[in-house]
Amino acid sequence: MGRGELSYNRGGENVIGCLVQVETRVLHGLRWYQKKMSASHEFFDHTSELGLRIRASSFAELLAEAARGLGKLMLRGRPASSTGQWRALEVNATDREALLVDWLNELIFHAEVERWIAVEIEIVAATDTMLSARARGVAVDEAPALVKAATHHGLSVRQVGGGGGGGGGDVEAEVVLDV
Amino acid sequence: MTLSILRPGPLVYEVPASARDDMRVPARFFADEELWSQIRNDRSVEQLMNVATLPGISECAYAMPDVHQGYGFPVGGVAAFRISDGVISPGGVGYDINCGVRLLASELTVADLRGRLEDLVHNLSRSVPSGTGRGGELRLTDHELDRVFVEGCKYLVERGLALPEDIDATESGGSLPQADPAQVSQRARQRGSTQLGTLGSGNHFVEIQTVEQVFDSAAAEVLGLETGRITVLIHTGSRGLGHQVCTDYVREMDRVMPKYGIELPDRELACAPFDSPEGRAYFGAMCAAANFAWSNRQTITHTVRGVFERAFGDAGRLRLVYDVAHNIAKVEEYGGEQFCVHRKGATRAFGPNNPEIPEIYRSVGQPVFIPGSMGTASWVLVGAEGAMTESFGSTCHGAGRRMSRRAAKRVAQGHEVRRELAKKGIVVRCHSNSELAEEAPHAYKDVDRVVDVVDRMGLARKVARLKPIGVIKG
């Protein structure tokens, strides 16, 4: 039954209302899962540093995936479950490319100073120059970070695979990390 | 695109300024044939050509024989910008501001360490904190941090962490006077407040060595080095504090460049006129981070001295021979004009009689230390007159990577590297097998060949070759 076909009377209002809520949550979760699955990252070689290539269906999801990639790198691939409270993070920059770099540098700072590595990330809002996110992370005894900074070298964020702003393509980015 | 490469000398390869419309000066590489074949295989050439486009650059953009691809500037790059109309670029110094090396010399010989080397290396690894974000025992208040920023190693004499004679044996006396703590962000302070006296990770290390061979006995005598003696080489920099200063100012310069009409082929070269509010702010912050780095190596020296003296008593005393920076921007004068000389993976190498050199070394030239890769030799050189005329007083800084970290791990795993080093009699302490594999000797160029080029070019002269026997890797 589709949501538009729902009808209810006063006696069944609570039950049907609950069903609607459950369905909404399932759909929301499914969309989130599909987005997450459609996002990917890989590391590429550089003589002295390390490159991170990210691909996602939207710029917002690309930012989230970049953070997941960085988290895995800093945890050296060890499995980790996020704990604790969600925390709000905000970054402003001059353009998309700078926003990606500043976002990663924000996470590097928290990892080193607070011994906290973000692993579960949700983007609340993202434009080309502003990011509002919430994250849950892993507390570590010693900062396991091996990343000094995200750099602007060879930095790119571009539409690929039939994009052009029509929503049909993916967004791909490359960033070099100083390690 | 096929580049036309000129050969102005037997050890010089040059991309002329005419190769690209935006180049202001040639891009000049010092290398022999073998090193050149490695250099042209990564993006060093393109990156040095990009450096040659920066406003106010003088003569050439230079690459030392250990050059390899970096971000923005290649690692091993040197560029001098006129103070009058040139720029300063945080990416031209790098994230590890004032990464550098210092050499300590002892009266001990290999025989004195026989049967005690394992313990010595073990105690050093326990005493010197290592790892990227690892903090040390010192916790600095904001006021104390300000004093480190302004006074550098001189403040550490007061704290009992440096000997008065260490100051003269450190480049610039371990303190650049242009430091401005007000330009260091709160975030940078947070990253630095617990990291004084810590080694960090990557290619940073403390190494116990023996003087294997002396090439210039007169210079070696002046430096107090003798065949068979034990030395200690310390390689690290400004840690998270420097990383954050660079992050802050690359961001700031990237934002303000349009105001100055600067267009770049690579955003990591972000820069501003030296004589601008942003240029002066970065230089003040960079000098503060450089003073922090010298203080960091000095604090580690204090720890290492403690370990040696507990093990060997008075015989274990360690004298600081010298300390050199290899990621830094400094104001220097050449031909009556002032320049901001950027050395990114390059070492100052002033020739004899320069007043910047401590009086005891002035007759032979400034001491220069070239660490090899883990398990291979390191070199002691002295700056030569050729550096003053050919490379803005600069020479190489190490062996130079030739292989990515992942490629290095594909060649050999950490335990195999450890076994190979053990076969050579080298005791290694490293908290991660993975990082050991990343820094394996095969990942680097041949340091002997690199040093041979700068010696033949007259940029620096060979004094002594040091052989590692114990390594504490960051």
H/E element string of chain A? Answer: HEEHEHEEEEE
- Biggest pleated-sheet summary of chain B: 8 strands, mixed
The CATH homologous superfamily of chain B is termed tRNA-splicing ligase RtcB
Task: Please estimate the helix content of chain A.
Answer: 25-40%
Biggest protein-protein interface?
A-B, 36 and 42 residues
Description:
The complex is a heterodimer of chains A (179) and B (474). Chain A is built from three helices and eight strands. Chain A is α+β, with helices and mostly antiparallel strands and 179 residues long. In chain A, helix 2 packs parallel to helix 3. The longest helix of chain A has 26 residues, at 13-38. Residues 1-12 of chain A have low confidence and may be disordered. Chain B has a single domain (6-402, 444-473), classed as Alpha-Beta Complex (tRNA-splicing ligase RtcB). The mean pLDDT of chain B is 95. Helix content of chain B is 34%, strand content 25%. In chain B, the strands form four sheets. In chain B, strands 7, 8, 9, 11, 15, 16, 18 and 19 form an eight-stranded mixed beta sheet that branches. Chain B has a seven-stranded mixed beta sheet with strand order 1-2-3-4-5-13-12, with helices on both faces. In chain B, strands 6-10 form a two-stranded antiparallel sheet. The chains are: A alpha+beta (179), B alpha+beta (474). Chains A and B meet through helix 3 of A and strand 4, helix 8, helix 10 and helix 13 of B.
Strands, helices and their partners?
The complex is a heterodimer of chains A (179) and B (474).
Chain A: H1 13-38, E1 40-45, E2 50-56, H2 59-74, E3 83-92, H3 96-114, E4 116-126, E5 130-139, E6 149-150, E7 156-160, E8 170-178
Antiparallel strand pairs in A: 1-2, 2-8, 3-5, 4-5, 6-8, 7-8
Helix pairs in contact in A: 2-3
Chain B: E1 6-9, E2 12-15, E3 27-30, H1 33-39, H2 44-51, E4 61-71, E5 73-82, E6 87-88, E7 100-109, H3 110-113, H4 117-127, H5 142-151, H6 153-158, H7 164-168, H8 186-192, E8 205-214, H9 217-223, E9 229-236, H10 239-256, E10 272-273, H11 277-312, E11 319-325, E12 327-334, E13 337-344, E14 347-348, E15 367-370, E16 378-383, H12 385-390, E17 394-395, H13 405-411, H14 414-423, E18 427-429, H15 433-438, H16 447-457, E19 460-473
Parallel strand pairs in B: 3-4, 18-19
Antiparallel strand pairs in B: 1-2, 2-3, 4-5, 5-13, 6-10, 7-9, 7-11, 8-9, 8-19, 12-13, 14-17, 15-16, 16-19
Helix pairs in contact in B: 4-11, 5-11, 8-10, 10-11
